[in-house]
Write a structure and sequence with these properties.
The protein is an alpha/beta fold. It has one domain: Vaccinia Virus protein VP39 (Rossmann fold, 3-Layer(aba) Sandwich). Helix content is 35%, strand content 22%. The longest helix is centred in the N-terminal third of the chain and has 17 residues.
Length: 202
């Protein structure tokens, strides 16, 4: 098997890192990554946060390729990649300070996006952060013609995928106990949404 490579990860890793440096705290101890893909983000980001255990997850078919990246990088803080499908699996039974996901919401079906946000609400506690990177629509409009074309391409492959409306995401995050800390403009007409968990109420 050839080691997988994501050009998108290579392009966006520097601007995402700049925001993570603002968002991840020295007191944070565990980060859960949803949809780790090739594992390139984990390999690039983890050394900048030596206090942080990085827990990569994805669907089972992606784990072998991810492991190739991790075996080569030999970064002790990156944990063994595990299978996690937000439509049916729970998060690992650990306290996570940060949950990070990149370029997943437009791939996942909307019902799975909602399942993921519900999991965030159930499992994160006050002060934990959820970081969501990718393209979004605002007020029903795409942020660029290229994103409109990308949305058509996604839907041609899977009618239930596509670029999500920021308002839908934000409303669901609020419903599940989060507040939006910042909506960062990113290169290539992407966004990075940073949410903080409000006080947990049983």
């Amino acid at each position: 098997m050839e080691k997988p490579f994501s050009p998108a990860c290579e392009r966006n890793k520097h601007p995402i890192l700049n925001i993570l440096k603002e968002t991840i705290l020295p007191t944070d101890r565990r980060l859960l990554e949803i949809g780790s893909g090739t594992g390139q983000h984990a390999v690039y980001f983890a050394p900048y946060f030596p206090q942080l255990e990085w827990f990569p997850t994805d669907l089972r078919p992606n784990l072998a390729g991810m492991k190739m990246w991790f075996d080569e990088a030999r970064i002790s803080t990156i944990q063994k990649p595990t299978k996690l499908d937000v439509s049916q699996d729970d998060f690992p039974k650990l306290k996570f300070d940060v949950v990070f996901t990149a370029n997943t919401f437009h791939i996942m079906h909307w019902k799975d996006c909602k399942s993921f946000m519900k999991l965030l609400g159930h499992r994160l506690r006050e002060g934990s952060r959820a970081i969501i990177y990718g393209p979004f629509k605002y007020n029903g409009d795409f942020t660029s013609p290229s994103n409109a074309d990308f949305d058509l391409e996604l839907k041609s492959k899977d009618p239930l995928s596509g670029i999500r409306a920021f308002e839908d995401v934000n409303n669901n995050m609020i419903k599940n106990g989060f507040e939006l800390i910042q909506d960062f403009e990113m290169p290539s007409h992407n966004k990075l949404l940073v949410y903080s968990r409000l006080k947990f109420v049983k």
